[in-house]
Amino acid sequence: MVVTNVPDYYIDEVVVHAMIFLALTLIRRIQTYSATTKARKWCWKEVNGTIYRPINPAGVRKVPG
Fold it and tell me: Helix, strand, coil shares of the chain as percentages rounded to 5?
């Protein structure tokens, strides 16, 4: 068995994965909920009262408060 280092292998796939992750993080406002949790506020209603879900064909779903 031979093991080699290929530095250019899968670079594009990693970039695409990172961009999708960042887009979903912004859409779902994960950073807001993370900061709230670190501030020891455990209820999602204290943030905004709305949890954003991924976009589906019907549009953005909201969990009522």
Answer: 45, 5, 50
pTM for the predicted model, two decimal places: 0.50
For 47-59, the pLDDT digits (tens) are 665 666 655 556 5
In this predicted model, what pLDDT tens digit does every residue of 9-26 receive, in sequence order? 888 888 999 999 998 888
Residue 22 domain-assigned? yes
Q: Please check whether residue 58 lies inside any domain of the structure.
A: yes
Q: Does any domain span residue 63?
A: yes
Report the domain count for the chain: 1
Task: Answer whether 51's CB lies under 8 Å from 44's CB.
Answer: yes
